[in-house]
């Protein structure tokens, strides 16, 4: 049985985590690709191979070897080839682990929160994509409240993300406008889930 995979994405502060929590409350399986990546990084064999691939040794934290995320971030922000190398190594492993988890639960349909879907070229793996959209002001306010970052810091992050302002959805993409209150968003999520199913 081929499971139906649905991605939930959107820019920083758009409300995608809120949307996936609502989907979970409706009784559907939701996976977080960032969490899966963190889990497979705990595998020493995978960690060693990844570090060899990108040329950055792991660092020791509390007696354990871990990925030096700070150095990796600096590298991929400044070197597109390094980012391609990182993605081409990690993405198949992440999707493989996702597939194993879906099979182990025998799921017909699974939703996945994928923060950097289009930036990472992961859209090809999904049957449907839900894009959560929100005004720039609301996104900045949400991230500022959540992370304590300044608007300048948040805008810098946004500059390195996919630009959804002129985004043209295709037949496999559904847009949720997160521009009202939480109850309005819940109604929109319920309505879209019914359409997808």
Major sheet summary line: 5 strands, parallel
How big is the Rg? 18 Å
CATH architecture of the largest domain: 3-Layer(aba) Sandwich
The CATH homologous superfamily of the largest domain corresponds to P-loop containing nucleotide triphosphate hydrolases
The helix-and-strand class reads alpha/beta
* CATH overall fold name of the largest domain: Rossmann fold
Distance between the termini: 16 Å
Catalogue the unreliable spans.
none
Quickly name the level 1 CATH class of the largest domain: Alpha Beta
Outline, from the CA principal axes? globular
How many separate structural domains? 2
What is the share of helical residues?
40-55%
Number of β-strand runs: 7
Q: How much is the average pLDDT?
A: 92
Largest sheet: spatial strand order: 2-5-1-6-7
